[in-house]
Amino acid sequence: MNIDTIIIGGGVIGMLTARELALAGQRVTLFDRQGTGRESSWAGGGIVSPLYPWRYTKPVSALAGWSQRHYRALCEQLRAATGIDPEWTSNGLLIIAPDEQRDATGWARRRAAEVQCLDRQQLAQLEPALARPQDGAIWMPEVAQVRNPRLVKALRRDLELRGVPIHEHEAVTAIATRHGRVQGIHTAHGNYPARTVVICAGAWSAALLEGVAPAPPITPVLGQMILFKAPPGTIRRITLESDRYIIPRRDGRVLFGSTLEQCGFEKRTSDTAGRQLRESAIQRFPRLADCPVEHHWAGLRPASPAGIPYIGPVSALEGLYLNAGHFRNGVVLGPASCRLLADLLLAREPVVDPTPYRIGAPRQDPGAE
Q: Which positions, given as ranges, span the membrane (predicted)?
């Protein structure tokens, strides 16, 4: 079978990119070094918003805004096609950061987003499980979440129904080139010719460019999370305080995380981190003291300068594209990032200005918006 485009990486970014290209009539094949969706896409929380969104640059906000406007429809399409519900749920985001109210309200005016500043009584009403309601909380009622494991399962099934071949547990060993142009890929199982190749391998993306093109600074950052098994309604709202967030699922389970650790590509959990996360969660939400920790896991986020992903062609090699470096925001930025990548590859009108995401574009410091 002739292949138009090979996607390297089967996380949310890789599968959404494959889906966008398949919708446009491309013959797409996807490769993943293990099972699809088993890295940072599975490990993250699924909040459909950057944390403290006013701290980010305009390029991140632009992608987030487009994705947020289209996420519910995407999840409904996936549920209708596959029978798997990604559980898009709009239960709002509470941010306990009184000293950031001015930044939050200014950002909201510029972005036409809804932000409310709460006193302690209003906060306690919105989230009764909080141990210490205080004045000055920030409420973003429009923020939603998805259940990442269900999202990646739905995307995988959607690609199968569209006839997209998926090669799991087949690592790409090299990108085939000739005279400055992509020819396909090599794996331990064979050679696969293709006109274009898109690298969507998260924290492993830079390594795939070795010997082919200069690699942008995409590095792994470890994050650990825990999952409480709780009755439905124990926690009502997504709540963020000091880079720790809690996310209540529809069935009552509650995620709490996450750590930020520089450990290279060593993906592991630690008893110390697990204990600290549990203690912090119970300190903030005492109801969780009677709820068992059902799971403790870790993932490697693909960090990039200012969290601005690299989306577009790799100029050193014709036919090679990159869609990686989303750091903590792969889920929320995914729909827009993958639509933009498809627009560039197919020479369509881009949904957002592609300039800030080019590999050689300068990355501003966070908070530049």
A: none
Indicate if the pLDDT at residue 92 is higher than 70.
yes
How far, in Å, CA of 205 to CA of 162, rounded?
26
List domains and CATH numbers for the chain. Answer: 5-76+149-214+305-357 (3.50.50.60), 92-143+219-303 (3.30.9.10)
Q: What is the pLDDT of residues 114-137, one digit of tens each?
A: 999 999 999 999 999 999 999 999
* Model pLDDT for residues 158-197, shown as the tens digit of each residue: 999 999 999 999 999 999 999 999 999 999 999 999 999 9
The values of phi and psi at residue 325, to 5°, are: 90, 35
Estimate to the nearest angstrom the gap between the alpha carbon of 297 and the chain centroid: 17
Q: pTM of the prediction?
A: 0.96
